[in-house]
Amino acid sequence: MQAIKYSTRALAAAALMVITVLSGCKKLIEIDDPIDTITTGRVFSTNEQAQSAMAGVYTKLINGTSYGLSYGDKGFAMGAVNIFTALSSDEYIYSRVETAPYYNFYTNKLTKEMNSSVTSVLWSSAFECIYGCNAIVEGIGESGSAALTLPVRNQLNGEAKFLRAFTYFYLTNLFGEVPLVLTIDFNKTSRLGRSPVAAVYTQIISDLTDAINLLPDEYPSKTGQRIRPNKTVAKALLARVSLYQKDYTKAAQLATDVISQSSNYMLEPDLNNVFLKGSSEAVWQLEHSSNNTNTRSATPEGALILPSPVTTGNNFYFVASSLLDAFESGDQRKSKWIIANTSSGTRYVPYKFKVDAASAVLGEDPKEYTTPIRLSELLLIRAEALLLGPAADKSGALEDVNTIRRRAGLTPDLSNSLTNEQVLAAIMHERQVELFGEWGNRWFDLKRTGKAEAVLSAIPAKQPWLGDYQLVYPIPVNEITINPDLGQNPRY
Q: CB-based contacts of 199: which residues, under 8 Å, 6+ apart?
């Protein structure tokens, strides 16, 4: 894999950042075409120009920096987080041993040299998004134009701070300590060291708190699509962050704020509809361009991970037996979200996305969207938070778990006679089978609950277990070459 040719230093040197905008951005927010270069005086002089700059950040996030890079493993939000954490955990296997950088994720044998090209993609695409967000915040703050109105200032500030928090959540969960970059001033960022994880979370919480206060109640898109964050989206991400920080009271409260909007968010009765554009359980989705000749109307992840044709085409990514065995008899998630592939014997392919590269159509409106946050996760966040919170609300936790199980066709409900420990195990089981392959959930769950070594070291392909240091990825070597103050994670 070719790494994206951007480093944090190079981006900082750009000072006011150049945004490469792909087609489809105008549709995203239905305003004038996005402009190419952010300069405070020009870009932030009107509502339309500022909105266009924000659209450029979203476009790069889901489409990458060029058509040639728009595959699912070319950006952290384009499938890379999903795929590599699924390989690192017990969800997917990678069938080509000769492609060592990928295979090392599956076997948990990462090295700083072999895997630097892959981790560079995760790192650089995340920092590109952060620099874009910082440029928006600083540009709005420095603009004195009356044509840039207060409602738009608040909205775009909120969106930028939400995206910055979202990106830092993944950076710190993938790499541990990371530089806390809050400006585009090269003089302040060129030799910035890494901040402790606790400090990164403090900034994430601060940004999300600001976003909740700044963002509107309604989704900003004129079409009503859930492709730009509103107040509820920021609450949903803060609920996840609060759970990870063991602030169970806050996590339960925020999750309830989302779940209680039953007229807006409902579980899709048909599991095949969960990841469709406009899904009723989507809290936040990302709209990709369908004008990329590689991916066309498929999601970046679907284009990469699905064989063509799905049931007989060659493939590199398959569902691990440990995940297949985790499903209970009659669980419709196994029958609808996993499909058999007979290209080399019978193996099984992740099938949450149905549109592959071959069936996708150039220029056609996408049928499916990448979905970073959905209602099912909020139910499971609340279940865990209620159980582990000060009230130890087992009944409330079970109701949320059973709601998800009923949708999957599993009956009867789990009984209130279960112990708290058994209910917690049921919650984690539901997270495993409901959220598999989605946004690092399983990988992060194993790490945050202290179960990673016990679970992963028992998998034959991951033996011998080299040590828990592999639970964070190595800092890209090229980044340390540019900025030695970054240092490397231990034992790499």
A: 180
> Comparing C-alpha atoms, which of 128, 164, 178, 141 is closest to residue 14?
128
**Which residue type is seen at 327?**
F
In terms of phi and psi (left: phi > 0; alpha: psi -120 to 50; beta: otherwise), the region of 409 is: left
**What percent of the chain has a predicted confidence (pLDDT) above 70?**
90
- Beta-bridged to residue 341, according to DSSP, are 347
One-letter amino acid at 319 equals V
CA–CA dist 375, 240 (Å, integer): 12
Beta carbons within 8 Å of 339's beta carbon, 6+ residues apart: 310, 311, 348, 349, 351
Q: What is the C-alpha to C-alpha distance for residues 227 and 28, in angstroms, rounded to an integer?
A: 8
Show the tokens assigned to 76. 């952290």
Given a contact cutoff of 8 angstroms between Cβ atoms, the answer to whether 272 and 355 are in contact is: no
Let me know: does 53 contact 43? Beta carbons within 8 Å.
yes
Q: Is the sign of the CA dihedral 455, 461, 467, 468 positive or negative? A: negative
C-alpha 167: how far from chain center:
8
Q: Among candidates 271, 336, 275, 339, which has minimal Cα distance to 301?
A: 275
Give the mean model confidence (pLDDT) for residues 67-79.
Answer: 68
pLDDT value at residue 98: 76
Give the number of other CB atoms < 10 A from CB of residue 428. Answer: 16
24: alpha, beta or left? (left if phi > 0; alpha if psi -120 to 50): left
Q: Whole-prediction pTM value?
A: 0.91
* Count of residues in the chain: 492
Q: What is the CA radius of gyration of the chain?
A: 22
CA 62 to CA 300: how far, in whole Å?
8
In the structure encoding, which two tokens stand for residue 492, read together? Answer: 């790499």
Q: How far apart are CA 347 and CA 345, in angstroms?
A: 6
Per-residue pLDDT, averaged over 441-447, amounts to 98
E-strand ranges in 311-364 read: 317-319, 338-341, 347-350
Strands, E assignment, 197-337: 282-286, 317-319
What percent of the residues of the chain are helix, what percent strand, and what percent coil, each to the nearest 5?
Answer: 50, 5, 45
d(C-alpha 357, C-alpha 123), whole Å: 26
Q: How far is 263 from 269, CA to CA, in rounded Å?
A: 15
Helices and strands counted in the chain (H then E)? 21, 6
SS3 277: coil
CA distance 22 to 376: 32
pLDDT value at residue 32: 38
Q: Encoding tokens for residue 262? A: 């039953």
Listed in sequence order, the residues at least 6 apart from 103 whose beta carbon sits closer than 8 Å to its beta carbon are 94, 96, 97
